[in-house]
Amino acid sequence: MNTPSGRTIAIDGDDIYFDEWGSGPPLLLLHGLTGSCRDWQHVFDLSALGSSYRVIAPDARGHGRSTNWSGAFTFRRCALDVLALLDHLAIDRVRAVGMSLGAKTLLHVATQAPSRIDRMIVVSATPRFPGATRALFRAAASALHSPEEWAEMRAKHVRGDEQIAALWQLPAAFAADATDMTFTADRLAAITAPTLVVAGDRDPLYPVELAVELYRCMPHASLWVVPNGGHGPIFNEQRDEFVRRALPFLSAR
């Protein structure tokens, strides 16, 4: 079946929703902050992807149809959710693509349980949050949002305006957290999966030097710096080139 079929499982008291479709080697797709699993329709031809892979695309906790009753949120916690989901589906090893939130989640998965990742693509990832990035996070959390932005979020997140407001406040928590994103060279060297690091050369959150650091620290990494690319340079006019590079990387052995 190449049409996504959604279901929800319980993980540590929360309901985690995911879409699943297709057949073949398992492929995990992890979306970005304030997004949902449905965002991948704007990147890949999902039906064609399902003809080559068993695709699993979850909503991160607190996003889309997933809950986050405690309000606590870390990338490390998201990685534990991913591992629990893979356990539930009896998947030992997976190929994966993560964008921003999803990419940072994958760094945690690949360092906590290296054997679970076969190969991965991390888009707009970072080993840590520099001071300038934390300042941008704090500014984002205090920003006002237009009616159009509210409408766009309501179309993705089904649990009401309180859920959306909590998502918009997450960057403030990231700015204050000194422990969640602290990937040293030694930790990154433990990642065994071939990894494609994708970064925009004009990403305002994560300067390209951070992508180069990831590339140099991971033993089986490749690096693609997207010219004139901002944060998450895999949509719109940059979509086709990303897909052209991503699909052969994922299918390589």
Describe the structure.
This protein is of the alpha/beta class and 253 residues long. The chain has a single domain (5-130, 182-251), classed as 3-Layer(aba) Sandwich (Rossmann fold), CATH 3.40.50.1820. It has helices at residues 46-50, 75-88, 101-112, 131-141, 147-156, 161-176, 185-189, 208-217, 239-251, and strands spanning 5-11, 14-22, 26-30, 54-58, 94-99, 117-123, 195-200, 221-226. Strands 1-2-4-3-5-6-7-8 form an eight-stranded mixed beta sheet, with helices on both faces. α2 crosses α3 (101-112) and α4 (131-141) runs antiparallel to α6. The two termini are 25 Å apart.
The shape is globular
Strand order of the largest sheet: 1-2-4-3-5-6-7-8
Largest sheet: 8 strands, mixed
Tally the structural domains.
1
- What is the helix fraction of residues, given as a range? 25-40%
Count, helices: 9
Features:
Rossmann fold, 8 strands, 8-stranded mixed β-sheet, alpha/beta, 9 helices, 38% helix, 253 residues
Sum this structure up briefly:
With 253 residues, the protein is an alpha/beta fold. The protein is built from 9 helices and 8 strands. It has helices spanning 46-50, 75-88, 101-112, 131-141, 147-156, 161-176, 185-189, 208-217, 239-251; strands at residues 5-11, 14-22, 26-30, 54-58, 94-99, 117-123, 195-200, 221-226.
